[in-house]
Amino acid sequence: MKTLNIGLFGFGNVGRGLYDVLQRINSQSVSIRRICVRDLNKERGVEAVFTNNPDDIFNDKDINLIVEVIDDAEAAYDIVKRALKSRIPVVSGNKKMLGHHILELMDMQEHYNTPLLYDASACGSIPVIRNLEEYYDNDLLCSVKGILNGSSNFILSKIFNENMSYGDALRLAQELGFAERNPTLDIDGWDSLYKLIIITVHAFGLYVAPEEILTYGISTMNDSDIRFAREKDRRIKLVAHSEKVDDKLIMCVLPQLISRNKYIYSVEDEFNGVVIKGLFYDKQFMFGRGAGGHPTGSAVLSDITACAYNYRYEYKKRNDSVLPHYTTDHSFRIYFRYKTDEQRSLLTFSKIREQYSSEEYSYIIGDVSIADLKAHQEELRVADCFVAAYPLD
Question: Maximum Cα–Cα distance for the chain, whole Å?
């Protein structure tokens, strides 16, 4: 195991978490040599060498690993590209950047013979990427689905377990550092989307661009939807879903009405839960904290340690498999709450299973294609509408 001198970009929640974890374990083989931040005048209360100039890190000959844990996707992209071009191994925690640029970065890794690791970007403390790489690297994998965003799950847990209002649950998540001041990335499903894209590359070898995937969150959920879920003895969870159907692949991020017999029904608070289904081994479940500085910082450290042993992703599915074809030509049962006739006409139901109408709101339970939902997802992001997948079991 080689000694690693880290050039760290970012000292927010995750960067500080990584620093604290390293201090706690008192590692003799891993140390942070310099930290690049935006504001040098901010008091951070730690003894470390800070800079606001990336050149101070890239020109330091003793630094042999770059770690970026910043929230700016374009800046993270520049850092990772520069690290690879400089042939310095790099660990990234920026799922939005990876969701948009992972194909290019895969090619750069091969061209410059330099690894990029990012397990911590996908599911917080759950090592899902490395498991998909090493233990699910055959063609028996059928689906990967689960709760990939700890912030939205924390909010939903408080609503269903403690009868909190949506607004109060969101404010508490922000106070505890689980949700950002602008929570759109979490509650509207974008964070889960980027993670799903990364996971799918390793699970099925296929990259699908963010704009091609149905993505819909919980920001328009209201008391009527919560009451409906309770009446049906279900809970609403924000679920990311990637599944192979014959030679096709379907993907989406969508709230789901989850029944008690599902693993993710009991995934609470800021935890993530991932269900991996195989052709012969059925379902396997992975569970762990998906938000918070120390859990995510610990996951980043796991990537760092892997670098010390010269580990790199092999992208086995992408290189060795016959890739499935991405499609939105697939239907499933949904719950659709709406207010106006115009909103009702947005979706075409191939089968209607249940209907309810009142002066306050109406809902339909029926079968709709992913393509139809995708075509109207922006029009459905209004307070009078809410859509959730409603599995039969």
Answer: 70
- CA dist 202 and 196 (Å) reads 10
Q: Is the CATH code 3.30.360.10 the one for domain 138-289+323-389? A: yes
146 - beta bridge partners? Answer: 240, 274
For 143, the 3-state DSSP assignment is strand
Structure token digits, residue 144: 């990967």
What's the token pair of residue 289? 């904290």
Q: Please tell me the class of the 4-118 domain.
A: alpha beta
Residue 69 in tokens: 């844990």
Q: Which residues contact 14 (CB under 8 A, 6 or more apart)?
A: 69, 93, 120, 293, 296, 297, 300
Long-range residue pairs from 355-363, CB within 8 A, at least 24 positions apart, any chain:
360/224, 361/224, 361/337, 362/337, 362/338, 363/224, 363/228, 363/335, 363/336, 363/337, 363/338
> Are the C-beta atoms of 284 and 248 separated by less than 8 Å?
no
Catalytic residues: 195
**pLDDT level of residue 113 (50, 70, 90 thresholds):** very high
φ, ψ for residue 323, nearest 5 deg: -75, 140
- Produce one character per residue of 83-100: b if its CB has 16 or more CB atoms within 10 Å, e if not: bbeeebbbbbbbbbbbbb
77 DSSP assignment: H
Report yes or no: 329 and 369 within 8 Å, Cβ to Cβ: yes
- Model's pTM, two decimal places? 0.95
Between the alpha carbon of residue 161 and those of residues 167, 193, 267, 291, 348, the distances in Å are: 15, 26, 12, 19, 34
139/143 Cα distance (integer angstroms): 11
Closest CA to 171 of 338, 192, 13, 159: 159
Q: How many CA atoms lie within 13 A of 167 on its CB side?
A: 0
pLDDT surpassing 90 at residue 321: no
pLDDT digits 0-9 by tens, 291-317: 777 878 888 989 999 998 999 999 988
Burial of 374 (0-12, 13-18, 19+ CB in 10 A): middle
pLDDT tens for residues 10-64? 998 889 999 999 988 877 889 999 999 998 988 888 888 999 999 999 999 999 9
What is the residue extent of each domain of the chain? 4-118, 138-289+323-389
